[in-house]
Write a sequence for this structure.
């Protein structure tokens, strides 16, 4: 039996005060934390329910970018008209993840902070360096089908499970956080960590900091050539074996002015390599360049036996996603039956 207190602050200042208590954790949608508590992987002593904070708005920024409230639900974000129009990559990535029910509950801030789905991490009967630093990593030499091929360490080979974060990495989002010490912003590339010798630290967000919003820079020039390609064990409700986010800015002359790529399912954080993107810049779309880009993105990739296949799979997925992006962004509105509040959702059919 673990004593647990539950508090419901009504504003950010009160929430930031509550989180300073020993063993306190924020809870919003609860789609990951509740699972972790059931499995006794995380045992907070105080839950600070932040669902009543006014952090759920989605609004245009002065520079034309878009601010996503940390408490806006994933579904509301994916189907927001401005996200569909200006950031189709983000919409597609969110809709590739989880299930409609989970997307209706999960928040944007929580999506960023969700923890690895390494099955050893969830099994408190075995060691795990992420759960208990210094105890070992049974995934190395064990079942590693879902695990990392890039950026892993001798302490941990886990992957980050989010689809949304792969798109946010390509979009170069900025994450805003608040604490009693003030506010700061974190470039998305600096949000998630590689495991190194501290795999128990997932992100650069401190325990007493609250994510308040995620800001997307203007990205209209990419909207016509954006693709999120996710390869997984089954067609829905499965984490990525490999995913690829591609954004291309292609001029009227057919030349790629700028390319951005991020990989999911392959590392402890969304994986980007600027040198790989530079190989596409200033060139017309070309299969040979796509292959060179894939090779550079995957430079240094190393399998663990059970996930060796991911190296070839990722290479082919990158080339395929680039070809799809050149052909043009596909509409996400075909899945509008999942929109919260739609006739289908109202009948509980979402
Ligand atoms: Fe734990 Fe990381 Fe090893 Fe999984 S890969 S068992 S999360 S240390």
């Amino acid at each position: 039996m673990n004593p647990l207190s539950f508090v419901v602050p009504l504003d950010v200042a009160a929430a930031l005060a509550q989180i300073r208590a020993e063993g306190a954790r924020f809870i919003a949608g609860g789609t990951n934390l509740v699972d972790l508590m059931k499995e006794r992987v995380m045992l907070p002593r105080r839950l600070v329910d932040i669902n009543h904070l006014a952090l759920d708005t989605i609004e245009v920024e002065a520079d034309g970018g878009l601010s996503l409230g940390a408490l806006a639900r994933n579904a509301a974000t994916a189907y927001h008209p401005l996200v569909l129009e200006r950031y189709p990559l983000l919409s597609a990535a969110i809709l590739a993840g989880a299930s409609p029910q989970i997307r209706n509950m999960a928040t944007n801030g929580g999506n960023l902070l969700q923890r690895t789905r390494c099955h050893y991490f969830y099994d408190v009967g075995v060691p795990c360096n992420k759960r208990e630093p210094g105890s070992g990593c049974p995934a190395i030499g064990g079942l590693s089908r879902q695990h990392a091929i890039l950026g892993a360490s001798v302490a941990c080979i886990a992957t980050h499970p989010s689809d949304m974060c792969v798109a946010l990495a390509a979009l170069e989002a900025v994450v805003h956080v608040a604490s009693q010490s003030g506010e700061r912003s974190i470039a998305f590339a600096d949000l998630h960590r590689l495991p190194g010798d501290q795999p128990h630290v997932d992100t650069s967000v401190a325990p007493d900091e609250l994510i308040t919003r995620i800001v997307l820079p203007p990205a209209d020039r990419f909207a016509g050539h954006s693709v999120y390609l996710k390869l997984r064990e089954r067609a829905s409700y499965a984490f990525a074996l490999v995913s690829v986010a591609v954004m291309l800015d292609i001029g009227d002359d057919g030349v790629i002015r700028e390319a951005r790529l991020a990989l999911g399912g392959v590392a402890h954080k969304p994986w980007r390599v600027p040198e790989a993107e530079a190989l596409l810049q200033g060139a017309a779309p070309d299969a040979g360049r796509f292959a060179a880009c894939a090779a550079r993105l995957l430079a240094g990739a190393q399998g663990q036996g059970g996930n060796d296949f991911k190296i070839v799979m990722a290479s082919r997925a990158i080339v395929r996603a680039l070809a799809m992006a050149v052909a043009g962004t596909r509409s996400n509105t075909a899945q509008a039956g999942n929109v919260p509040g739609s006739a289908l959702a109202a009948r509980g059919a979402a």
Summary: Residues 222-341 form a domain with the Enolase-like; domain 1 fold (CATH 3.30.390.50).
